[in-house]
Amino acid sequence: MTIGRIYAMIFTTITFPGVIVHEIAHRFFCDLTNTKVYQVKYFEFSNSFRVAGYVSHEEPKTLMAKILICIAPLIINTFLCLVFSCPIIITIATGTAIVIGFPHLILLWVSISVGCHAIPSPQDTNSLSEYISKHGNKVAIISYLPFKVIFFILHLLQHLYLDLVYAITILYLNYALLDAILN
């Protein structure tokens, strides 16, 4: 077992709420776009941890539906990362608590876990690439190329904790916004 695989197992186990929300986001956007879902696994412990959860669904009827299903975790996980972090951030920004309590720490862990799984997975972006190659016109294919490069770079940077950096950045931006509003 490689160091990378061990890291993936530990990271996925610690941040399992984010994996669950990631899959719920896919399921939600499948339902929203009337895309039939065949099978859902919200979280599964496995030896590889390459895929800790999945949503198996029919091929979406439109390119927009496929895009929405693919980027669903970016939308939902980012939003919930903001929501779950509000209690602790408001507590810190207003100075209403000298000691941060256990419930705050649980919400912080859930918030970071959810934020860490906001970036669409390689499986998500690969399925979008395949869909566009199969159904897209030349404009769609050419328009998607920069995004394909960006997703490729994001997936490489995940080995350097980009997902954790993303979650912490969301928390910081939430703090800056709430601090500006409250003070």
Structure description:
The protein has one domain. 30% of the residues are buried. The protein has a two-stranded antiparallel sheet with strand order 1-2. The mean pLDDT is 89. Helix 4 packs across helix 7. The chain is mostly helical. Helix content is 72%, strand content 5%. It is globular, with a radius of gyration of 18 Å.
Task: Note the topology.
Layout: H1 3-14, H2 16-32, E1 37-41, E2 54-57, H3 63-94, H4 102-116, H5 122-135, H6 138-157, H7 162-182
Antiparallel strand pairs: 1-2
Helix pairs in contact: 2-3, 2-4, 3-4, 3-5, 3-7, 4-7, 5-6
Question: Runs with pLDDT <50, length 5+?
Answer: none
The residue fraction in helices comes out at over 70%
Question: What is the oligomer described by this structure?
Answer: single chain
Sequence of secondary-structure elements: HHEEHHHHH
Spatial gap, N to C terminus: 50 Å
In order across it, which strands form the biggest sheet?
Answer: 1-2
Portion of residues in beta strands equals under 5%
- Mass-distribution shape: globular
Q: Could you describe the largest sheet, including whether it forms a barrel?
A: 2 strands, antiparallel
